[in-house]
Model the fold of this input.
Amino acid sequence: MNKGDGAHPGSRARMAMWLMAPVYLTGVLFLYSSGGAEGMEAENKVLCLSNEMLKEIQSACDDFGLYSLEKTLRSIKNFAEQNQYLDVAVLGQFKAGKSSFLNAFISQSLLPVGNIPVTSVITRIRFGPEVKVTVIFADGTSKEISSDEIQDYVSESGNPENSKNVFAVDIDVPVLSNIKAIRLVDTPGIGSIWKHNTETTTGWFPETGSVLFLISAERPISENELSFLKEVYLYSPEITIVITKVDLFAEEQIKEIESFTAEVLRRAFDRDFPILRYSAYMNTSRYNEEIEKKIFLPLALNRNKIFARVLHHKIASLVDSCLSHLDISYQASLQMESEKSKLKEIILDEHLNSHFIRRELLLIIGSYKEKTRENIRIYLDSFRKGIEEKLIADYEIAFNNWTGNLYQVTRQFEKWLRQSLDSELKEILLKEEKSFELLNAVQKHLSFYLRSFRERLSANLERVLGVQMRLEEWEIAVGEFRKPSISISRSFEMHLDLLWFLFPMFIYRNIFRRYFLRQVPYEIDKNLHRLTSGLTERINRQMDSLMAQALAYMNGELNMIEILLSENKGDSSYILERMNSIRDKFQALYV
Done:
């Protein structure tokens, strides 16, 4: 087959427009009915056609090695199969007030909240005749718990790094009786950078039906939020922006925040999104009524239609990605065998090979690592004076209550110092954001590098083959990050306390009071030094992990492109036949 037998390379953009345009039509794409035999028949027909579409894409992924699409494909299959609820995901950066919003909306403080990232697993809230909480584990088992135990399974403090292997927690509440078809979903924040949090959210949101995207009024919409919202939009067109914590600002300031947010979103998406206000502390009932009336009730009443539209939107995005990759293979198949090697060298130029990329990433990570220890030392040292003053004041009170001989008083001092210092340093570790700040800087740098890599690869493909590769967002996140432990030395190196009978406390009490007091600053210095070393080691290790993730993403992409350019998966007519089959099945979703 020659070039004239296929589509013109410039048709790629028109194909994408053809695929995505129906999503924005106001008419019903699938003729879902609100009930009855005809409605059930229409629903079954749509689900059947959708499954056929997804099977076709799965087949193409298997045949052409499109491994980067498989995770999204699985998520959309799960959405299509889950036909009981329309999940409304509450998304946003950490500290945007997601859990506080849900607690206020259901008028019950069931979800843990805090000043640090709290939620670590997906939590789903639905209607039930009475409050009931069910924990679903990753192995498929479940158990019912009391509402007081929720924190032990969904919070970072109760379930660090999701060590209990919780898949989700389902909470039934009577207050959602007006929106029984809706399930509200609390998610970990996207800006916490901890991998077990971010991956939980980004891995799950392709299954969402609708989204409430919360933005704190305390800070303008960030680039990170905007990037995440773009990725969410690929799979969930039903998005409402909720500006939280509006009670902290005057009316004129809120209007400015709304106007700025609307303008940023309009430039990014070329469309407007509904923007609502919310406060969990002021006029909450009025805000709840507005959100239920404007968002939740319409979703519940039109659940089937919206489910169909969202499913179509998800499949359209997946089809577009799939055809984007197949088009690379198709255009390459039109070239002479003698030209393919040369074309591959042009597309995968000197800046798009694994050795060059690895050298660049090592330089990037090295520049951050060399600053880690000093940054951590300066940060922790800022707490030294406050800790010392507090512990010395507490010591004076505590010492007066210690009784017994020298050995007994020594044990009481060591226990007190261990508990007090442990409490102070753990509070710093719990709230410290220096690790986040340092790792977030690396994460942003690598994300920018990944984006530049994809843009260069896409530009080369378009220049050589006339193919525009779909630029998808990649999420790199920090893995397990355990904080260092606290260590307290023995008070006497030579076990002087064992000779307690030589030092009666009624004579030597003030001498040992001063001696123990001198141990406090020493133990503070020692543990701050240990924390500096421990955090430095762990942060640098996570920087290596971030680099490995970025390198794995890019090597995987290069390998896939190389396969599409090199391997003979069939002649051009076969590839075009597969592409047309996908288009035909996608077109069949219309009625």
Observations:
- Confidence is low (pLDDT under 50) at residues 1-35, 115-119, 189-203, 490-494.
- The radius of gyration is 29 Å.
